[in-house]
Amino acid sequence: NIQSIKEILCLSGPDLQRLTKLSSSDVRYLHKTVAAVVKNDPVVTALQMYNEECPFPTQNRKLSMGCPVLDLLLGGGIPLMGITEIVGESSAGKTQICMQLCLSVQFPRSYGGQEAGAVYICTEDTFPNKRLQQLIALQTMLRADVPADIVNDIKFGNNIFIEHVADVESLNCCISKRLPILLSRGLIRLVVIDSVAALFRCEFGASDSIAKAKCLQKFGAMLHHLSHRFSSPIICVNQITDAINDSYLAQSDFGLSGKVLPALGLTWSNQLLMRLMVSRTQFCVEGAFPGDESALSSGIVQRRMEIIFAPHLPQSFCNYMICTEGVRGMQKTGI
Amino acid sequence: MVYTCIPLLHCLELGISKEEALEVLQIVRREASGEESQRSVGLPSVRKYTALELLEQEHAQGSIITFCSALDEILGGGVPIGKIVEICGAPGVGKTQLSIQLVVDTQIPECFGGLDGESVYIDTEGSFIVDRVMDVAHAAVQHCHLIAEAGQDEVQLEAAQAFSVSSILSRIYYFRCHDYVELLAQSHLLADFLAEHPKVRIVVIDSIAFPFRHNLEDLSLRTRLLNGLAQQLIGMANDHGVAVVLTNQMTTRFGPVQSTLVPALGESWGHAATIRLILRWEGKLR
């Protein structure tokens, strides 16, 4: 009455012996044969992974941010497999960065894209469509590294699928039903959820932390699975909460010395591959960029992108600005 | 090698009577004297050791340095062969970094204080990024070259020549397990792999927590599976002379007054590892 390979592997040697009356060496053989069916990939070394000779997809390539300075900070861009979180106060630029990624994913691979579109899941405000159109119109200006005819050939608007989701139930539905279809058809290679925190904070009260943690875990697992299966990054936007005194403990979880904490807690953080924090600084940049005179009498607010954690990057940061054509990192000038 | 000791309590656990337990002991003792015939059948041979012999054997096994003197000191010289070390910590504290450092450090040639071994990395989260491994490997190579240049020792200079980033990468065997079923399967195949690759000196599983924390509602099943896995790993650590390093996540334990952070996977799992390292942040330092 053993029904599946999974059951065989979940039973210990002695248990199997009792159930099947096989000898211990036969049981060992059974375990190994079944295991070989589950794990039939050939052995791979790190060198083969580096040379891209690996038969299964690995975490080599990245999705470009559309800006060389930001790409440098991130070691090439956003890793293709895993959940990357962008957390920060409001007006820090999270939505701007996400929109820029929805455009850069559509570029050819040789220019850091994935030659596919994106899904943008909105949970709070309506999607800023006018701003998107403005960004699309100015892509040649932002991406001076790409020949203009290639840029103009891409029908950016057609490849961004916008979903509005108002509660956790609809979000789960979207992720479990709609995303797999778009991903398996190769129509999208990026998912943006803006924002995760909004939904979970509304639906779960202070006393529901266990239920909330379970829900977040399930949700994270689904996203993780999709991301790895289709080599598509998932960007989750998160908000910050104020750190109050007895959350010293929680602060010490993240190595943050400021007065703010990402919302959603440890359960969620355990699911993330990388966490980026964005914030406004108190500095402004005088209109230094040509073509940007419109915005500039008071100077553009300088913003900061900080790597809070990533498996492959040290903690570091980079300043950036939000220009008409998009998000541009600012190179560190010698001090 | 099986160290035999069947106390009375244990046979109560197994559900066999004392008479049956004595019978088993007698069979084992008989097998111990007939070792040669057992080997050809493939059964594990049995030897009795004194405690002193065991201690000497432990010291002779060697350990893998981490390049962080504070850590090496706590560990008594480094990550020890033949034991399980569990590294726990919050996200971003450096568990994957330490794991990658260890699979590189295992390969340091003996003349520089390393084990000249190969490494196995089992990735369950997808956080093994080759670029980073290259950086760590590069630093290790530089380090050895510097020592060799300073000392001008023949053996060291030769070893430093052969120790390169690509040689390091080519001796890290990478396995990707997407869920706990794959991880269980991998552990069954690992013993044979280690037998075929006798130069492997470290097995890292990063992380052991991830696959066991979602899609696994039945906690007693989880405990059973983890215990089984721990036993297999300890067996492999001993039989093949490898160090086993596991990374674990942290979870919140709700207390009456305040909550604390504890390693994930439950109380009984806490006994699986020989050494448990908990990495924490102190302000902005780790």
From TrEMBL, chain A:
PROSITE patterns referenced in this protein's UniProt entry, alphabetically: RECA_2
Gene Ontology biological-process annotations: double-strand break repair via synthesis-dependent strand annealing; resolution of mitotic recombination intermediates; t-circle formation; telomere maintenance via recombination
Cellular component terms per the entry's GO annotation: Rad51C-XRCC3 complex; replication fork
CDD domains found in the cross-reference section: XRCC3 (cd19491)
Keyword Phosphoprotein (UniProt): no
GO molecular function: ATP binding; ATP-dependent DNA damage sensor activity; four-way junction DNA binding
A Pfam family the protein falls into: Rad51
Keyword Chaperone attributed: no
Recorded superkingdom: Eukaryota
Major site of localization recorded for this protein: nucleus
Residue ranges of every copy of the RecA family profile domain listed in the record: 59-240
Cellular localisation: Nucleus
Keywords from the UniProt entry: ATP-binding, DNA damage, DNA recombination, DNA repair, DNA-binding, Nucleotide-binding, Nucleus
Record-stated family: Belongs to the RecA family. RAD51 subfamily.
Protein name: RecA family profile 1 domain-containing protein
Species of the source: Scyliorhinus torazame
TrEMBL record, chain B:
Keyword ATP-binding: yes
Compartment annotation: Nucleus
CDD domains xref list: Rad51C
GO CC term (a single one): Rad51C-XRCC3 complex
GO biological process: meiotic DNA recombinase assembly; reciprocal meiotic recombination
Molecular-function GO terms, alphabetical: ATP binding; ATP-dependent DNA damage sensor activity; crossover junction DNA endonuclease activity; four-way junction DNA binding
Ranges in coiled-coil conformation: none
Broad class of where this protein is predominantly found: nucleus
Residue intervals of the RecA family profile domain: 60-250
Annotated protein name in UniProt: DNA repair protein RAD51 homolog 3
UniProt keyword terms in alphabetical order: ATP-binding, DNA damage, DNA repair, Nucleotide-binding, Nucleus
Provenance organism: Scyliorhinus torazame (Cloudy catshark)
